[in-house]
Amino acid sequence: MPIRSILAALALIVSICATPSLRAASDEEAAFSFDGQVFFLRSTEGGILEYLPAGETFKNWSTLISVREFSGTDDPKAYAQKLIENAKASSPNAQGQLMENEAAGSYIADFLLPDGEGDDPGYEWNLWRVEQKGDGVEAVQYAVRIPAGSDVGAKEIIAAREKIVPELAEFKVPAEGGDSAASSSAPASSGDTQTYAYPSADEPQFTMELPADWAVESDEKGAWIVAADKKFTTSVVVVDPDDVEDAVESIKDQNGRRFESIEWSETMAPQTNPATGVTFRSVDGAAEDKGVKHKLGIGVFSKNGAEKSFILTTWAPEAELAGNAGAMLQMLGSAKLQ
After folding, report:
1. Cα radius of gyration rounded to whole Å, the chain
2. How confident is the model at residue 15 (pLDDT cuts 50, 70, 90)?
3. How far apart (Å, rounded) are the C-alpha atoms in residues 123 and 120?
4. Is the peptide bond before 317 cis (omega within 30 degrees of 0)?
5. Residue 308: pLDDT over 90
6. What is the CB neighbour count within 10 angstroms for residue 173?
7. CA separation (Å) from 152 to 136, 149, 169, 215, 224?
8. Cα–Cα dist 237/256, whole Å
9. Which listed residue, 120, 188, 207, 223, has the most CB atoms within 10 A of its CB?
10. pTM of the complete model
């Protein structure tokens, strides 16, 4: 089971941030060093910070570190335990355990999952450090791919665990440039917010937290959201689960007519958050009109048994992204499907 399907977060993946380089440029500043490896920031999609060693991509990675925040829960132990339970539920051969750092008030979910089919499928070994942060939890994930046919066995994993766990327990979340502080592009709490809730605040099926000065127009079909500076917009379209494919194609067609040129990436395979059961997939767009470049993203939230699916389309001129990056990532990171 691919790591990005196991570890999907609750956020929509969009290409509002610049497409990450697949290798470290000669002048690129490393984010941090961990277990003797130098890591570079490779994605901030959906408010999830993902780091890879130089020369590795999301298709061929061997080691991955990510940082994300989850709102709506203030029980890191329960959240870590839920990760293990869902990992075991995903595969009868999965193994997992929960470790507690009582002094730090943090928990580490440790689980091993088969990665592929057959008698020797390879494995993905995952360590998640989960601790309370504000009104939610922060999760730092360390993952290693063990390829099929590898000589790595239980003995080697135990030895690696004894080395990695203490370092993970002390790991400081880096800023985007590599400083030991929280990145300004990660979701952050702000003083004045408003909640978009569909169909109502009393019985919400879908919610997002937005800056209080953003304009929101909503009805039974969804919502239109505009940043205070009018340089970032988001639409929410509510559809029946069976109509998602047609709706996404319609959105693509509408944007194709809106710009002089537009190119869409391949659609990311559906990814499920093991803690919430919410599945999402996304496609990114790069457009140009009258010499101005734009970034777009179409993301779909769905969940088994839910009456509705929710399609978010985001758009901003590429040169204007920085002004709303923090608020945008906070909005996406707060999205919830009941």
Report:
1. 20
2. very low
3. 9
4. no
5. yes
6. 16
7. 36, 9, 24, 54, 51
8. 18
9. 223
10. 0.48
